[in-house]
Amino acid sequence: MDLEKVDLSLSDKKSAMLWESVFHRVASGEMPPKNKSQPAPEARAAFLAELGKDLRKASLARQEKEGRGPVRRLTRTEYETTVNDLLHIRTDLRSSFPDDAVTAGFDKVGEGLTLSAAHFAAYQEAAEKALNQAIMRGAVLNTDSDGAKVFAARPKEFTTFGGWLEGNTMALASRFFYPYTTVLGAEAPRNGRYRITFTAQARGNGGRPMPVAIGILDSQTVRPDAPETSLWFDVPEDRPRTVAAELDLEFRQHFHLFGPSLVHRDVFMPRMKKEGRWDGPVLLLSRLKIEGPLKADGTIDHWPGTGYRELFDNIPAKPLSQITGVQPEKGKPEPWFPASAAPKEDAARLLRRFLPKAFRRPVPEDVAAGYTARAHEAIDRGVPFHRVMLDSYKAVLCSPHFLLLEEKPAPLGGPALASRLSYFLWNSAPDEVLLAAAVKGELATRDGRARQVERMLNDRRAERFERSFIDQWLDLKNLNATSPDGVLYSEITPSMVVAAELETRRFFHDLLAENRSALESIQSDWTYSNELLSALYDLPDVAGYEMRRVPLTPQSRRGGFLTQASVLKVTADGAHTSPIIRGKWVNERILGVVPPKPPEDVPKIEPDIRGATTIREQLAKHRSTPACMSCHTVIDPPGFALETFDVMGGWRDYYRMPSHTGAVIELKRFGGRRVHRGPAVESGYTMPDGRAFADITAYKALLLEDKERIVSAFAANLLTYATGSPVQFADRDDLAAIVAGTRANNFGVRSLIHAVVQSRPFLHK
């Protein structure tokens, strides 16, 4: 690239982006190339200062004119949570929409959130589905059974595959596919949140606690130990334990309970047939209770339900036949709808109450009058009241005022700022408290914003931020995209993958809840583990499947996200690891560096499954190509630092071979399973600046020598997620201020969120 021929007009966005690239490459020392003459340090600094000043000025001018990004629509996740919260329902709406494009690592970035004909059709479908769920008349569940009643529901199945009665307690000795020795709760009569309570105890488990898994089942083809498993609880041998948990169920779904550590029925049945008795581990279930659907306060949501009251207030509901005079079809449940004695008055009242909640701001009179006029016109045509209102609400949920986050290129006003806050921390619309604070002007003050952030982070809805941010930042949403090779990694089970996910989620939750340092994302002296992960990580034994916080020693080679099984799994393909893939991932997600795409004429590196050539040897040849060397200088160090971890995150000194060509190694933590040893794994490498490291522990220590860089990259991800726009050149000083402002709190994650909310980019479109 000849800079003398590049357009110097920074007002042109394309030209400015080119000069920003020049700035970053010169600042990083990548340019001029190492084999060319270098400018004096003073000259380099002067060049960067002058160019940086001009770039910031041009970037700021574009922001003042256009905003930091385009007006963006709700993502499909935000649409689902917003509608569910608004109508007090729990139903899947995301699957109605095409996947949202990922830009700058997140699906919230406006530039990638396009609108198509498929979206508009999906909005109609999703709104119809949600409204029907809100007024769906259904029974409630409030079952309370002892073990004998549970057993009596399917005695033949339980007896055949490993269950029997001991008084009023049911004993389970084996596990198998649904429905065998899987305890099923009653089907959900309608979508919602349900509570399951059970009392259980272990027996014959060598004094160790026994795990009980709770999951959701709606198909006979689902395996009980598949990713549908949602929660684990350990029950002891010396006493019964009562456990309560809440999960969302769709219509006709049900809870299922099973013992994932129990023997397979193919082990249980032959032994029972031969010996006529069973002395192995047994799970004893003495009570099973299911309640729901639940309201936000945990009480049962009886008909007509919170959703109905949100839409129709206190208007009584009647069977459709009483409203229309048309008798229902035989064998089908009759729907109930609101029967208004004053339809026009009720329509106006209900719409004026609903619109500000849906549009997340005070609604101008002409907008409210327009919706009311259309409803009155339909009533005059003889359209039934319930149909008029459902059509009106459907129009609201498909309106641009609902679908778009309306912001102008200026400091955000109260309601717009409230929406930015709520979609950052709750993935949904502002609640009444936040909107009231916005209307009162409290969000215009630093203290007012801080109070709301603390309140929102302490609310259970903040779990949505934790899940969504981690899913995207660390690619946890792709955890089950691949499965470890069953021959090479036979010790890996679906339950271990679930544990890996829980480790990362619990770890991030504690970083946020306890305001722990963002630097612990690189290295920590603690993590979450259970007996499955402890075996994988070769940590001291942890009894049971429940995740618990455990200390780490330097010798464990663990700590932080980089060495967690979930991250190491999503950066592998199930059979092989790639330093290129992992190195690129670390640069983009952790270090804030986006390597350029490789030249099209450079062949892809494939692993040598024969073991004749290691990946390090292959990459050495690859780097000899000048077009590849500059990128691999930054990609390879983290890639090779992580090469001592296999596709599931287990430590390795050697590669595994699929055939019987290598020495046989027994895995002591996994019952002596045998694997075949291949070539040794080399663990050290060199940083771009020439510093050498011996292993992953030394590599992380080198990263932490530049604390601000790590925190800045993390804060940039937060800022992108929070604002729906990538960090721009004009935001560099703001990003630096966010980092500097949290130094006194050791760069605490909670402090960083507060600092992001107080920053100029967050407070402006």
From TrEMBL:
Residues 558-653 form the DUF1588 domain. Residues 689-762 form the DUF1585 domain. Residues 416-539 form the DUF1592 domain. Residues 347-407 form the DUF1595 domain. Coiled coil: none annotated. Pfam families: PSCyt3, PSD2, PSD3, PSD4, PSD5. Residues 72-135 form the DUF1587 domain. This is DUF1592 domain-containing protein.
